[in-house]
Amino acid sequence: MTETIEKAADAIEWVTPRPAHWNEMTGEQQEAAISLQKRFYAAMHRTPEEIEESRRKFWEGVTPARALPEGKTFEDVFVGAIKDDMTDAEVIRLLEELD
Q1: What's the rounded Cα separation, in Å, for the pair 61 and 64?
Q2: How many other CB atoms are there within 10 angstroms of residue 30's CB atom?
Q3: What is residue 96's predicted lDDT score, i.e. its pLDDT?
Q4: Confidence check: pLDDT of 99 > 90
Q5: C-alpha distances in angstroms, 8 versus 24, 30, 32, 35, 53?
Q6: Is 89's pLDDT higher than 50?
Q7: What residues contact residue 22 under an 8 Å CB cut-off, 6+ apart?
Q8: With DSSP H G I counted as helix, E B as strand and the rest as coil, what are the percentages for the chain, rounded to 5?
Q9: What's the rounded mean pLDDT across residues 18-38?
């Protein structure tokens, strides 16, 4: 098994050096490191179309922010709601309400 892992590791173009403790890692840890390295390499060598598709998929899952009141900025809404004597817990609760 370790020989197979070594061959696989040598077969890919390493973007970063192997960990200094490579020989002390279990076979499962080495496989995980190789898998991560392959994913990293693939991510760094994507086409512009693949990058755009990744961005599109990411933004599909993002919940749009609630609209601010007309003529107001986030700072107006947030700072205007905080009183000088509020505790940290009260500020956190206020932030949660704004979410």
Answers
A1: 9
A2: 20
A3: 82
A4: no
A5: 18, 10, 12, 10, 29
A6: yes
A7: 30, 33
A8: 65, 0, 35
A9: 82
